[in-house]
Write the C-alpha coordinates for this entry.
Amino acid sequence: MPSAEAEVPLLAEYSDSAVRLKHEHHGVELSDYEDDQYLGRRVWIESKKLWHIVGPAIFSRVASYSMLVITQAFAGHLGDLELAAISIANNVIVGFDFGLLLGMASALETLCGQAFGAKKYYMLGVYMQRSWIVLFLCCILLLPLYLFASPFLKLLGQPTDVAELCGLVAMAMIPLHFSFAFQFPLQRFLQSQLKTGVIAWVSLAALIVHIFVSWFFVYRLELGVIGTAITLNFSWWVLTFGLFGYTVWGGCPITWGGFSIEAFSGLWEFIKLSAASGVMLCLENWYYRILILMTGNLQNAKIAVDALSICMTINGWELMIPLAFFAATGVRT
Protein backbone atom coordinates (compact mmCIF):
# COMPACT_ATOMS: atom_id res chain seq x y z
CA MET A 1 0.00 0.00 0.00
CA PRO A 2 1.63 3.28 -1.04
CA SER A 3 2.33 5.59 1.82
CA ALA A 4 0.46 8.88 2.20
CA GLU A 5 3.78 10.71 1.89
CA ALA A 6 4.33 9.26 -1.59
CA GLU A 7 1.05 10.75 -2.81
CA VAL A 8 1.83 14.27 -1.62
CA PRO A 9 3.52 16.55 -4.16
CA LEU A 10 7.23 16.93 -3.56
CA LEU A 11 7.85 19.33 -0.68
CA ALA A 12 4.45 20.97 -1.00
CA GLU A 13 4.68 22.23 2.55
CA TYR A 14 7.94 23.99 1.77
CA SER A 15 7.23 25.18 -1.76
CA ASP A 16 8.04 28.77 -2.73
CA SER A 17 4.36 29.71 -3.02
CA ALA A 18 3.55 28.32 0.44
CA VAL A 19 6.46 30.15 2.04
CA ARG A 20 5.56 33.41 0.27
CA LEU A 21 1.89 33.27 1.28
CA LYS A 22 2.76 32.45 4.85
CA HIS A 23 5.00 35.46 5.25
CA GLU A 24 2.76 37.81 3.27
CA HIS A 25 0.01 36.94 5.74
CA HIS A 26 2.24 38.05 8.61
CA GLY A 27 3.53 41.06 6.71
CA VAL A 28 7.17 39.96 6.98
CA GLU A 29 9.72 40.22 4.20
CA LEU A 30 12.29 37.42 4.13
CA SER A 31 15.94 38.38 4.45
CA ASP A 32 18.75 36.60 2.62
CA TYR A 33 19.63 34.78 5.82
CA GLU A 34 16.07 33.51 6.19
CA ASP A 35 16.04 32.46 2.54
CA ASP A 36 19.17 30.39 3.18
CA GLN A 37 17.50 28.84 6.21
CA TYR A 38 14.46 27.78 4.20
CA LEU A 39 16.67 26.44 1.39
CA GLY A 40 18.73 24.44 3.87
CA ARG A 41 15.56 23.09 5.45
CA ARG A 42 14.21 21.99 2.08
CA VAL A 43 17.51 20.35 1.13
CA TRP A 44 17.53 18.47 4.45
CA ILE A 45 13.96 17.20 4.00
CA GLU A 46 14.57 16.07 0.43
CA SER A 47 17.85 14.38 1.45
CA LYS A 48 16.04 12.35 4.10
CA LYS A 49 13.41 11.26 1.58
CA LEU A 50 16.11 10.39 -0.96
CA TRP A 51 18.15 8.33 1.50
CA HIS A 52 15.02 6.44 2.51
CA ILE A 53 15.13 5.05 -1.03
CA VAL A 54 18.90 5.07 -1.65
CA GLY A 55 19.92 3.15 1.48
CA PRO A 56 17.92 -0.04 0.80
CA ALA A 57 18.57 0.34 -2.95
CA ILE A 58 22.35 0.31 -2.42
CA PHE A 59 22.11 -2.71 -0.13
CA SER A 60 19.88 -4.71 -2.48
CA ARG A 61 22.09 -4.01 -5.51
CA VAL A 62 25.30 -4.80 -3.67
CA ALA A 63 23.76 -8.02 -2.29
CA SER A 64 22.59 -9.10 -5.75
CA TYR A 65 25.95 -8.36 -7.35
CA SER A 66 27.73 -10.12 -4.48
CA MET A 67 26.23 -13.39 -5.71
CA LEU A 68 28.36 -13.07 -8.86
CA VAL A 69 31.39 -12.14 -6.75
CA ILE A 70 30.94 -15.13 -4.42
CA THR A 71 30.58 -17.48 -7.38
CA GLN A 72 33.81 -16.13 -8.82
CA ALA A 73 35.55 -16.54 -5.45
CA PHE A 74 34.49 -20.21 -5.18
CA ALA A 75 35.68 -20.82 -8.74
CA GLY A 76 39.07 -19.37 -7.76
CA HIS A 77 39.50 -22.23 -5.27
CA LEU A 78 39.13 -24.74 -8.10
CA GLY A 79 42.03 -23.49 -10.26
CA ASP A 80 43.25 -20.82 -12.67
CA LEU A 81 41.42 -22.30 -15.65
CA GLU A 82 38.12 -22.48 -13.78
CA LEU A 83 38.50 -18.92 -12.51
CA ALA A 84 39.29 -17.64 -16.01
CA ALA A 85 36.23 -19.43 -17.46
CA ILE A 86 33.78 -18.20 -14.81
CA SER A 87 35.29 -14.70 -15.00
CA ILE A 88 34.72 -14.40 -18.75
CA ALA A 89 31.22 -15.87 -18.40
CA ASN A 90 30.34 -13.47 -15.57
CA ASN A 91 31.99 -10.30 -16.80
CA VAL A 92 31.59 -10.60 -20.57
CA ILE A 93 28.59 -12.79 -21.43
CA VAL A 94 26.41 -12.21 -18.37
CA GLY A 95 27.78 -8.65 -18.11
CA PHE A 96 26.58 -7.77 -21.61
CA ASP A 97 23.25 -9.44 -20.93
CA PHE A 98 22.92 -7.78 -17.52
CA GLY A 99 23.60 -4.28 -18.87
CA LEU A 100 21.19 -4.56 -21.79
CA LEU A 101 18.26 -6.01 -19.82
CA LEU A 102 18.83 -3.68 -16.87
CA GLY A 103 18.71 -0.71 -19.23
CA MET A 104 15.56 -2.00 -20.92
CA ALA A 105 13.89 -2.43 -17.52
CA SER A 106 14.72 1.20 -16.71
CA ALA A 107 11.96 2.26 -19.12
CA LEU A 108 9.50 0.72 -16.68
CA GLU A 109 10.80 3.06 -13.98
CA THR A 110 9.59 6.09 -15.92
CA LEU A 111 6.18 4.63 -16.77
CA CYS A 112 5.49 3.33 -13.27
CA GLY A 113 6.51 6.66 -11.76
CA GLN A 114 4.11 8.53 -14.04
CA ALA A 115 1.25 6.10 -13.38
CA PHE A 116 1.81 6.20 -9.62
CA GLY A 117 1.90 10.01 -9.63
CA ALA A 118 -1.31 10.16 -11.68
CA LYS A 119 -2.95 7.66 -9.24
CA LYS A 120 -3.50 5.14 -12.05
CA TYR A 121 -2.35 2.37 -9.75
CA TYR A 122 -3.78 -0.47 -11.82
CA MET A 123 -1.50 0.45 -14.73
CA LEU A 124 1.65 -0.28 -12.71
CA GLY A 125 0.86 -4.00 -12.83
CA VAL A 126 0.02 -3.81 -16.53
CA TYR A 127 3.28 -2.01 -17.33
CA MET A 128 5.27 -4.59 -15.38
CA GLN A 129 3.67 -7.47 -17.27
CA ARG A 130 4.37 -5.65 -20.52
CA SER A 131 8.00 -5.34 -19.48
CA TRP A 132 8.13 -9.07 -18.69
CA ILE A 133 6.95 -9.88 -22.21
CA VAL A 134 9.43 -7.54 -23.91
CA LEU A 135 12.42 -8.65 -21.82
CA PHE A 136 11.51 -12.33 -22.21
CA LEU A 137 11.47 -11.94 -26.00
CA CYS A 138 14.81 -10.15 -25.79
CA CYS A 139 16.21 -13.06 -23.74
CA ILE A 140 15.20 -15.47 -26.50
CA LEU A 141 16.98 -13.31 -29.08
CA LEU A 142 20.11 -13.27 -26.89
CA LEU A 143 20.22 -17.05 -26.42
CA PRO A 144 22.84 -17.59 -29.18
CA LEU A 145 25.26 -15.57 -27.03
CA TYR A 146 25.08 -18.41 -24.47
CA LEU A 147 24.67 -21.36 -26.82
CA PHE A 148 27.61 -20.42 -29.07
CA ALA A 149 29.87 -18.76 -26.51
CA SER A 150 32.72 -21.22 -27.10
CA PRO A 151 33.17 -20.69 -30.89
CA PHE A 152 32.56 -16.96 -30.42
CA LEU A 153 35.38 -16.70 -27.86
CA LYS A 154 37.73 -18.80 -30.02
CA LEU A 155 37.03 -16.44 -32.92
CA LEU A 156 38.09 -13.53 -30.70
CA GLY A 157 41.41 -15.22 -29.95
CA GLN A 158 40.78 -16.69 -26.50
CA PRO A 159 42.77 -19.80 -25.50
CA THR A 160 41.02 -23.00 -26.60
CA ASP A 161 40.75 -24.57 -23.12
CA VAL A 162 39.36 -21.35 -21.62
CA ALA A 163 36.88 -20.86 -24.48
CA GLU A 164 35.57 -24.44 -24.29
CA LEU A 165 35.10 -24.42 -20.52
CA CYS A 166 33.53 -20.94 -20.65
CA GLY A 167 31.09 -22.25 -23.28
CA LEU A 168 29.95 -24.99 -20.89
CA VAL A 169 29.61 -22.49 -18.03
CA ALA A 170 27.60 -20.10 -20.25
CA MET A 171 25.11 -22.83 -21.20
CA ALA A 172 24.73 -23.72 -17.52
CA MET A 173 23.85 -20.06 -16.84
CA ILE A 174 20.88 -19.92 -19.23
CA PRO A 175 18.33 -20.05 -16.36
CA LEU A 176 20.12 -17.05 -14.80
CA HIS A 177 19.77 -15.28 -18.14
CA PHE A 178 15.97 -15.68 -18.11
CA SER A 179 15.66 -14.67 -14.44
CA PHE A 180 16.79 -11.15 -15.39
CA ALA A 181 13.68 -10.72 -17.55
CA PHE A 182 11.42 -11.06 -14.51
CA GLN A 183 13.55 -9.83 -11.62
CA PHE A 184 14.46 -6.41 -13.08
CA PRO A 185 10.83 -5.36 -13.79
CA LEU A 186 9.73 -6.62 -10.36
CA GLN A 187 12.42 -4.51 -8.73
CA ARG A 188 11.37 -1.39 -10.66
CA PHE A 189 7.70 -2.05 -9.93
CA LEU A 190 8.27 -2.22 -6.16
CA GLN A 191 10.79 0.60 -6.16
CA SER A 192 8.33 3.03 -7.77
CA GLN A 193 6.05 2.43 -4.76
CA LEU A 194 8.88 3.11 -2.28
CA LYS A 195 8.96 -0.56 -1.24
CA THR A 196 12.76 -0.61 -1.27
CA GLY A 197 12.92 -2.20 2.17
CA VAL A 198 11.17 -5.31 0.85
CA ILE A 199 13.68 -5.59 -2.00
CA ALA A 200 16.57 -5.28 0.48
CA TRP A 201 15.23 -8.04 2.77
CA VAL A 202 14.58 -10.44 -0.10
CA SER A 203 18.06 -9.70 -1.51
CA LEU A 204 19.60 -10.49 1.87
CA ALA A 205 17.74 -13.80 2.05
CA ALA A 206 18.85 -14.71 -1.48
CA LEU A 207 22.47 -13.83 -0.64
CA ILE A 208 22.44 -16.07 2.44
CA VAL A 209 20.94 -18.91 0.41
CA HIS A 210 23.59 -18.40 -2.27
CA ILE A 211 26.48 -18.64 0.19
CA PHE A 212 25.16 -21.90 1.63
CA VAL A 213 24.31 -23.45 -1.76
CA SER A 214 27.73 -22.48 -3.18
CA TRP A 215 29.52 -24.17 -0.29
CA PHE A 216 27.31 -27.24 -0.58
CA PHE A 217 27.69 -27.63 -4.36
CA VAL A 218 31.44 -26.98 -4.49
CA TYR A 219 32.73 -28.66 -1.33
CA ARG A 220 30.12 -31.32 -0.53
CA LEU A 221 28.82 -32.41 -3.92
CA GLU A 222 32.11 -31.46 -5.68
CA LEU A 223 30.32 -30.35 -8.85
CA GLY A 224 33.22 -28.16 -9.94
CA VAL A 225 32.90 -24.99 -12.00
CA ILE A 226 29.55 -26.09 -13.47
CA GLY A 227 28.23 -26.37 -9.93
CA THR A 228 29.24 -22.79 -9.20
CA ALA A 229 27.28 -21.66 -12.26
CA ILE A 230 24.21 -23.65 -11.16
CA THR A 231 24.26 -21.92 -7.76
CA LEU A 232 23.75 -18.57 -9.51
CA ASN A 233 20.67 -19.93 -11.28
CA PHE A 234 19.21 -21.16 -8.01
CA SER A 235 19.90 -18.00 -5.98
CA TRP A 236 18.69 -15.50 -8.59
CA TRP A 237 15.45 -17.41 -9.02
CA VAL A 238 15.03 -17.40 -5.22
CA LEU A 239 15.33 -13.61 -5.42
CA THR A 240 12.87 -13.44 -8.33
CA PHE A 241 10.25 -15.68 -6.71
CA GLY A 242 10.64 -13.81 -3.42
CA LEU A 243 9.77 -10.48 -5.05
CA PHE A 244 7.00 -12.07 -7.11
CA GLY A 245 5.50 -13.77 -4.06
CA TYR A 246 5.41 -10.50 -2.13
CA THR A 247 3.75 -8.76 -5.09
CA VAL A 248 1.10 -11.38 -5.73
CA TRP A 249 0.27 -12.49 -2.19
CA GLY A 250 -0.99 -9.25 -0.73
CA GLY A 251 2.05 -6.97 -0.77
CA CYS A 252 0.67 -4.69 -3.50
CA PRO A 253 -3.16 -4.90 -3.30
CA ILE A 254 -3.75 -1.64 -5.18
CA THR A 255 -1.13 -1.86 -7.93
CA TRP A 256 -1.32 -5.60 -8.66
CA GLY A 257 -4.69 -6.64 -10.04
CA GLY A 258 -3.63 -10.00 -11.46
CA PHE A 259 -2.55 -10.97 -14.95
CA SER A 260 -4.19 -8.87 -17.64
CA ILE A 261 -4.64 -9.15 -21.41
CA GLU A 262 -3.88 -5.42 -21.59
CA ALA A 263 -0.20 -6.31 -21.20
CA PHE A 264 -0.17 -7.41 -24.85
CA SER A 265 -1.36 -4.03 -26.14
CA GLY A 266 1.05 -1.22 -27.00
CA LEU A 267 4.03 -3.58 -27.09
CA TRP A 268 5.74 -1.86 -30.03
CA GLU A 269 5.87 1.52 -28.28
CA PHE A 270 7.13 -0.19 -25.15
CA ILE A 271 9.82 -2.02 -27.16
CA LYS A 272 11.08 1.23 -28.67
CA LEU A 273 11.29 2.92 -25.28
CA SER A 274 12.98 -0.11 -23.68
CA ALA A 275 15.45 -0.59 -26.53
CA ALA A 276 16.65 3.01 -26.34
CA SER A 277 17.25 2.73 -22.58
CA GLY A 278 18.90 -0.69 -22.98
CA VAL A 279 21.37 0.36 -25.67
CA MET A 280 22.35 3.49 -23.74
CA LEU A 281 23.22 1.61 -20.56
CA CYS A 282 24.72 -1.33 -22.44
CA LEU A 283 27.21 0.89 -24.27
CA GLU A 284 28.26 2.48 -20.99
CA ASN A 285 28.64 -0.94 -19.39
CA TRP A 286 30.24 -2.83 -22.29
CA TYR A 287 33.21 -0.74 -23.33
CA TYR A 288 35.45 -1.66 -20.39
CA ARG A 289 34.44 -5.35 -20.45
CA ILE A 290 36.10 -5.64 -23.85
CA LEU A 291 39.40 -5.31 -21.97
CA ILE A 292 38.92 -8.83 -20.57
CA LEU A 293 38.62 -10.26 -24.09
CA MET A 294 41.73 -8.36 -25.17
CA THR A 295 43.61 -9.71 -22.14
CA GLY A 296 42.93 -13.24 -23.35
CA ASN A 297 45.35 -12.65 -26.22
CA LEU A 298 48.31 -12.01 -23.88
CA GLN A 299 50.92 -14.56 -22.83
CA ASN A 300 49.90 -16.58 -19.78
CA ALA A 301 46.33 -15.56 -20.54
CA LYS A 302 44.72 -17.41 -17.63
CA ILE A 303 46.57 -15.41 -14.98
CA ALA A 304 46.05 -12.14 -16.87
CA VAL A 305 42.30 -12.74 -17.25
CA ASP A 306 42.01 -13.78 -13.59
CA ALA A 307 43.76 -10.63 -12.34
CA LEU A 308 41.86 -8.21 -14.57
CA SER A 309 38.50 -9.83 -13.91
CA ILE A 310 38.98 -9.46 -10.16
CA CYS A 311 39.66 -5.74 -10.67
CA MET A 312 36.59 -5.46 -12.91
CA THR A 313 34.49 -7.24 -10.31
CA ILE A 314 35.52 -4.72 -7.66
CA ASN A 315 34.70 -1.94 -10.12
CA GLY A 316 31.27 -3.50 -10.74
CA TRP A 317 30.68 -3.67 -6.99
CA GLU A 318 31.33 0.08 -6.73
CA LEU A 319 29.07 0.72 -9.73
CA MET A 320 26.07 -0.53 -7.75
CA ILE A 321 26.21 2.60 -5.56
CA PRO A 322 25.72 5.22 -8.33
CA LEU A 323 23.13 2.93 -9.96
CA ALA A 324 21.15 3.03 -6.70
CA PHE A 325 21.34 6.83 -6.65
CA PHE A 326 20.24 6.89 -10.29
CA ALA A 327 17.21 4.73 -9.48
CA ALA A 328 16.30 6.76 -6.38
CA THR A 329 16.50 10.01 -8.32
CA GLY A 330 14.17 8.56 -10.93
CA VAL A 331 11.64 7.68 -8.24
CA ARG A 332 11.78 11.12 -6.58
CA THR A 333 11.34 12.98 -9.87
User: Anything to note?
Assistant: The CA atoms of residues 266 and 299 lie 52 Å apart.
